[in-house]
Amino acid sequence: MRRHGKEKTYDRHRSRQEGWPDEKKAVDADECRGTETIGTQGRERKVGEKMSDEPTRRKKATYLSEAALASLREQLTKTDSKNATAKNGKLVAIGRQPWDSPNGRRVICLLCGIQLANLAARGLAHYIHLLHDHNLDVREYQEFCESKSWGRPPVVSLHARECGAKRRKDKPEEVKAYNRKGSKRQQNRLREDRQYRKKILAQRLARKQTKLKTKLTEAEWAALIPCPLCQREGHPEYRWASLMAHVPTAHEASFKTFRRTYPDAPIMASERKKQNRADLEAARAKQFGELASWQPTDWWDVPETKRIVASVLRREPGILNREAVLRLDEFAKCPYRLNDSRLTWTEYAKSRAGEVFFNRVRNWLKEAPGYKAPAAA
């Protein structure tokens, strides 16, 4: 874009990257006990502190008073507002909630009391309220509110939530196309922005752990194994059933390199090993059972050549000798000779001895317990 006669370009990810230092401290309810603090542009402030001293306070924005904000938090603590959260990851129209403005056009930030149409959208000069004023993303903001028993508030207004629900209902194909486009943009950013990819992978790991822990009992959870890479990144409480798929996908590391670095680390839980061993034994039993159903009782007492020919004839019931010898010529040598020269299976089948040999093999296969005559053509 041009401003004052000079061309000035903006990096669409610049403000986001500057707001996410590598060692950013996460907001935790335990850490915020007593003197509750949230980072805001390099300085700290107390939750509920008067916002007039804030350098990022917007002049034209509407703020709740300190008393009104405290009353709103108390009301949310007493009432169950969790039913006003997302459904299947998407916001739905559920009526006005305490954090919505009376006209439904704005949503209230429970940290500072500002009223905006969207707390996480890019506004004028790439301004994002949650990111620039509180150094939080949407997920962290909602998790912090849940830790304070305020529910899981949305970051968009009631009007926007209702419009979105109506649009998803009236134009589902258009919404799907838009979501695919957004997913493609995110994949490009994951490839280009290493810091953003690291944050997304950490969020995925946290979600997987939450789902896994709610699905398993305490005994099953204790039987899982820890990951040395997760411990190195500050998550010793994470546990997994197997590390063979976890290491390449979650940490983007080669499993061979992982084994060389941690040779003594367990890679599979004992219960998973037992289950895999049982599945393998069941598959082998099924395979050998199927083989035993069509193998004659003296299968291992006859020469190997006879077993090879029988396998080809059994694989395709009703196959003719001239077709079977073509298969045999591809992977097996004919052991028979004529005048010191080795014959091919095709040449051997044309002789009288070859015809007798193939007929004997077919009659031998009929002695199998599970033999079924091929259907007539």
What does this structure look like?
The structure is a single chain. The chain is mostly helical. Helices cover 48% and strands 7% of the residues. It has 16 helices and eleven strands. It has helices at 14-18, 66-78, 129-134, 138-147, 158-170, 172-192, 194-215, 218-222, 228-232, 246-250, 255-261, 270-294, 304-315, 321-331, 345-350, 352-365, and strands at 2-3, 6-7, 37-40, 43-46, 62-63, 107-108, 114-116, 225-226, 239-240, 337-338, 341-342. The protein has a three-stranded antiparallel β-sheet, with no helix packed on it. A hairpin with a 2-residue loop joins β1 (2-3) and β2 (6-7). α5 packs across α6, α6 crosses α7 and α13 crosses α16. The radius of gyration is 35 Å and the shape is elongated. Residues 1-55 and 81-93 have low confidence and may be disordered.
H and E order: EEHEEEHEEHHHHHHEHEHHHHHEEHH
Number of helices: 16
What is the total tally of β strands? 11
Head-to-tail CA distance between termini: 77 Å
Tell me the number of structural domains. Answer: 3
Proportion of strand residues: 5-15%
Structural class, from secondary structure content? mainly alpha
Strand order of the largest sheet: 5-7-6
Largest sheet: 3 strands, antiparallel
Tell me the overall shape. elongated
Helix content: 40-55%
Average pLDDT metric: 76
